[in-house]
Design a protein that fits this description.
Oligomer: single chain
Strand content: 35-45%
Number of strands: 8
Low-confidence stretches: none
Number of helices: 2
Order of helices and strands: HEEHEEEEEE
Distance between the termini: 77 Å
Radius of gyration: 21 Å
CATH class of the largest domain: Mainly Beta
Largest sheet: 5 strands, antiparallel
Strand order of the largest sheet: 7-6-5-4-8
CATH architecture of the largest domain: Roll
Length: 151
């Protein structure tokens, strides 16, 4: 057997003999419908840009990314997206008032309300979604280390 055929067989054996894992990013999106003036929170594997393009376009809907995480497997055949990773030993829970502690940041010392939390293994940190009701309902995410209980 020729060397090239041997290498091809070895290569094919490696590809076919090992289990392949696919991965995708999942998103928790807050979707605003500008026509009906309603909003909903959804979990999807569509990127925010793709979701907007396939659900009415930017003139119809707007989106806030509430959370994103990595899932393994696929979403073919209408399989559900994997769930949001639970926070690990969270310091704060939904509804807690927290103060932002980021020196030299626009939101330094702002007080907001925790709306959601999840663990990001690649960052090795809990991430919290904070809503600022007194600032036009601005929503953004922070690492646990950048927050403290509001006075």
């Amino acid at each position: 057997m020729k060397t090239s055929q041997t290498l091809l067989l070895i290569f094919l054996g490696m590809i076919l003999g090992s289990g392949a894992w696919a991965e995708y990013r999942a998103y928790e999106l807050e979707v605003f419908d500008r026509t009906t003036k309603t909003s909903e929170t959804i979990i999807t594997s569509f990127s925010p840009a793709d979701y907007i393009l396939t659900h009415g376009g930017p003139d119809r809907i707007g989106i806030i990314i509430r959370a994103s995480w990595v899932c393994y497997g696929d979403t073919s055949r209408r399989k559900k997206v994997c769930p949001v990773p639970k926070p690990i030993n969270p310091r704060y829970k939904d509804g807690d008032r927290v103060q932002i502690m980021l020196d030299k940041h626009l939101t330094h010392e702002w007080v907001g309300v925790v709306e959601n939390s999840f663990f990001r293994p690649e960052l090795r940190s809990n991430v919290y979604g904070i809503r600022f009701p007194d600032r036009n309902n601005l929503y953004t995410r922070y690492y646990e280390a950048n927050l403290r209980k509001a006075p």
